[in-house]
Description:
Two copies of one chain form a homodimer. Chain A is built from five helices and ten strands; from the N terminus they run E-H-E-E-H-E-E-E-H-E-E-E-H-H-E. Chain A has about 240 residues and is of the alpha+beta class. Chain A folds into two domains: about 1-95, 2-Layer Sandwich (Alpha-Beta Plaits); about 105-244, Pseudouridine synthase I, catalytic domain, C-terminal subdomain (Alpha-Beta Plaits, 2-Layer Sandwich).
Amino acid sequence: MRNIKLTVSYDGSNYFGFQIQPDKITIQSQIQKALKSLFKEDIKIFGSSRTDAKVHAQRTVCNFHLDNKIDCKNIVRALNTKLNPDIRVLEAVDVRDEFHSRIHSVGKSYRYRIYTGEIMSVFERNYAWNLCRDLDIEKMNEACKYIIGTHEFDSFKAAKGSAKTSRRTVYELKVSKDKDIVYIDIRGNGFLYNMVRIIAGTLVDVGTSKFKPSYVKDIIDAKDRTKASKTAPACGLFLMEVYY
Amino acid sequence: MRNIKLTVSYDGSNYFGFQIQPDKITIQSQIQKALKSLFKEDIKIFGSSRTDAKVHAQRTVCNFHLDNKIDCKNIVRALNTKLNPDIRVLEAVDVRDEFHSRIHSVGKSYRYRIYTGEIMSVFERNYAWNLCRDLDIEKMNEACKYIIGTHEFDSFKAAKGSAKTSRRTVYELKVSKDKDIVYIDIRGNGFLYNMVRIIAGTLVDVGTSKFKPSYVKDIIDAKDRTKASKTAPACGLFLMEVYY
């Protein structure tokens, strides 16, 4: 039995997230449907990241077991002919038997996009939080310093999450701006449920001067979800890379 | 009677172009529907540019006559509450009675986007020609020199066009690249039907070395549509600005 690692990109706008759900169209259901149509058997894929509805992936990773000698390049080509154009397989490689895309990942990076122009952008409506007001990037970056490092991120964890521990390490977090778009780039060893979107919501409250940058330290210390800001909208979030 | 000039942005992916057509959803039909819902009367808008199905507009212009004292800022706000999020009114201003958005325009600029990455981009599927091969930007820019200036552009005119003369002036035409996207930026006093997309198709044939750059001069001189390349796909085209 081969173990195949797939690198996949998707526009999540039309999907109920990655993970398979009864009666919902998800990324996982679409890829499994394509695999079934190709290999005439039920093949389960193991995803590295359960992105929510409307969240996007620049490059995510999953794996599956296959009893077939087909060349990896042809797996990519054949799956892409079966998939809708808003899901693309970028790469397929053979990996060792034990490899599991979620268990063996050592980190992930995400980008959160915010549109700050005065009137909602027609081209950003599915790819950014259309905040339509300006943000103080300097203050947001000052707040980032408190988030970087190893913390118990209870204040930045949605109630729905099932992680055993809330201890995570954020290696990198920075805010930048290009024309009307503000980017929040974050890299860490793992993220709790909705953690990136709650961090984005909180940084935006710093950027609009609702919170002082140093207040973010108080939020972390409180270990209380109600202290942090609202979860930022799903459509602004992009899973950029999964590290092994 | 007031004469209102509207600046409008739209994602053309879900529309049959700008101009009103029976039984088709177009940008014009959507804006007129919004005006009717707002002012309770049939108001015709005069467009500067009849973009084709799936073509986008960063900033286009239209105008309409109005017998109502509503503030321009409120026209923008009210229309945007009625329109789908893929059409946005950016600005409304009162203009002199005689102003007509098409007749009085003195120039337009367009951008054509081409994705050159190996596998189609999920995020560019509606906003670029997914050519998925590399282009020689230097050669394309060399070819641009022959197109810049005043010519009879018969070779770059779709049969369907109804313009009286094919004489047009291209003021600016340049090709640039940022990561996997090639941009063709063109500005002129006016464009024939499909002219920008036929120029884009022809420049791509130079970029892939099918044509030598100097062959573009022969194409222009031939005044024969069959000499130029295929019309590039609609979804890569953006009307950027209309000048007055």
